[in-house]
Amino acid sequence: MTAMTGRKPDWLRVRFPVGGGYERLRDLMREQELHTVCEEARCPNIGDCWNRGTATFMILGDTCTRSCGFCAVTTGRPGELDLGEPKRVAFAIQQMDLRHAVITSVNRDDVSDGGAGIFAETIRWTRRLSPGTTIEVLIPDFMGNWDALQTVLDAAPEILNHNTETVPRLYGRVRPKAKYERSLELLKRAKAVAPERLTKSGLMAGLGETKDELLAVFADLRASDVDILTLGQYLRPDQDHLPIDRYYHPDEFAELGEAAKKMGFAHVESGPLVRSSYHAEEQAAPVLPLRPVAASDELLPLVD
After folding, report:
1. Spatial separation of the C-alpha atoms in residues 119 and 157, rounded to whole Å
2. What whole-number distance in Å separates Cα of residue 2 and Cα of residue 12?
3. pTM for the whole thing?
4. How far is 223 from 104, CA to CA, in rounded Å?
5. Average pLDDT over residues 210-237
6. What is the per-residue pLDDT across 150-180, written as a single tens digit (0 to 9) for each?
7. H helices within the chain, ranges in order?
């Protein structure tokens, strides 16, 4: 256990994001007027990922209708949905030549389907422009709107990810508009609809939970047939967000990861800098074969 201090431990230090790959992706995102969770959530891995040519797209705008205690994404009243966004995301994926694309979003509790239709359209456009790319979506809970969930599932992403984020005891201050049981129900339903589809969930450590509580969530996720689990250190975006209770040592992440593997997850990623979409292709690779490109498939130009 590492006592909480104002200084991050050495294993959490990352380089400032610079480099040719980083600059190319930054320019592409600006050109296509796209958002990434890498920037909006102030992910510490942005320099690594962008220099490797990967990014996590954040659709449905850049303003979230919820105000979770851990998240740096702007909260407030969002604007209108951008119906051209799916094509622009798909075009960026094509330009980046991604073999595995990760698409997430803000919460849009202000619209009836929570933005599920935009998720589905983004998947369909990505299939059209990059038929060899596998797709992972990290979705909100849609306030328990299971028709909205079905809309996303019908578009057939290879991986359906929904993060539980923390342990049930802490939901009131960490995820005040979410419900632990609702998140589990979403993951159960996703697997029930298509047993062959991979499901995934992630948690943060360091918000005040105990290891036993983490292990209990792992067990609940396995009981919900979740295939892939991620666990990483919570890092406070700024003074307006929840404080860090403590830093977990890399050895503790290794121990928790081993315990999760023994529960039967197909793949577990556990470490201080792990995020649900960090090295997502490597997370998926052991359990998800890449999509073959049919001979009749061709990369189509983006058109209106």
Report:
1. 10
2. 12
3. 0.84
4. 24
5. 95
6. 999 999 999 999 999 999 999 999 998 999 9
7. 20-31, 37-40, 46-51, 85-96, 116-129, 146-154, 171-174, 180-193, 211-223, 250-262, 280-284
